[in-house]
What does this fold into?
Amino acid sequence: MYKTCSIAQARKLVGKEVKVAGWVHETRNLGKLRFLQLRDQTGIIQLTAKAQRESDEVLAAMDLPKETVICAEGKVVESSIAEAGCELIPSKITVLNQVKSKLPIDVTEHVPAELDVRLDYRYIDLRRPKTRAIFAIRSRLAQAFREKCQLMGAIELHPPTIVGAATEGGAELFRVEYFEKEAFLVQSPQLYKQLAIIGGLDKVYMTVPVFRAEKHNTMTHLNEAYQMDMEIGFADAKDAVDALEEVVLYVLAKVKKECEEELKILQRELKIPSSIPRHTYSFLVEKLQSEGIEFRWGEDFSRAIEEKISEILGYSTYFILEWPSDIRPFYSMPDKTNPKICHAYDLNYEGLEISSGAQRVHDAEMLVEQLRKRGLKPADFEFYINAFRSGAPPHAGWSIGLDRLTMKVCGLHNIREAVLFPRDRVRIRP
Ligand code: AMO
It folds into this structure.
């Protein structure tokens, strides 16, 4: 057995003998007195050895190079100088593995590292408390999403990743060779979650990777992203936006309550509104125009325009409802009286679009028309369109970008920081 407890647990076991394992974080040799900070995922404990008290083997081990993997046995005692209020008096230190190369990242953060280097050596970067905090928060966000969906009575699905047709427009697909056929990596679980609703599953959710062959290089886009989707049967746009608000507020509240330590490491104070204001696209365009900002109805909001909107509103978390039909995907339901507008919506959290969705078109002939209008071939979507001829209920749904949500919750400037091994135009290794 390499350890009897974690370092966090050992810190609570004053007076007890323990065996802990981890990495040498830092050492300090004052001659007669030697200190070694031992780190694992849960924290750091100080090992203190005295020349007159400890064996030669233990004293020698107190000078091991940083990041050596060791286990240490000894007694936890109270300490007025150690940061944790206790320290470990080692009786035995065993080297489990040595460091055999010069490390490109300083885990103690005395020397800051460029993001590119950190991503190339993510396995070392992950040893930094800040990076660990990001992934602990990301994990809690994803878990809280699942929890809330289950509480709302939804069923978790696992849709395919290799597909035969586009969902979000034809130009952004990664092609794959699939035996003698052409296939694609999925852009969104969109079609499949809708088929599940047509199948009679009333409320479904999923957390899935999606692939977008977009050639951009921005701080908020990836070529492989994680989406947390929900689709609801017998629902209109308002029902879906209500559900989205409920889920997002739940998830944020969970993280605020249960990731206090991680948020502190990241120096983040999470702001959670009691409710999220809702504005139509047209209202925001009027607001922009009344402030003298040049913007034409029908265009998509750029990042710069979104910043202006936040400035004008005085807050940066809000829904945008009722979008121009022409700039939304084919499955978005047009308004009956004014088809220029559709029942689609976005959620901007702290100035960034983190979620998007729509009430769906549930009539097969209307879908064919919508596909044609966008230059897409209905024949490519035959299996999907046919499903709408079998008795399709009205439905609506949305997708939350997990990477973007993590980025914003953690206060990061670059989405890549929120992803273990991000995929962008240049990065496919490691
Ligand atoms: P959309 O394409 O807007 O909608 O995606 C939904 C959410 O996923 C995140 N996202 C991304 N994050 C990082 N990099 C990307 N390239 C990227 N693309 C999307 C965003 C975005 O808000 N099928 C619809 C959803 C629906 O209608 O249910 C869809 O995929 O946070």
The mean pLDDT is 96. Residues 288 and 294 are 7 Å apart (CA to CA).
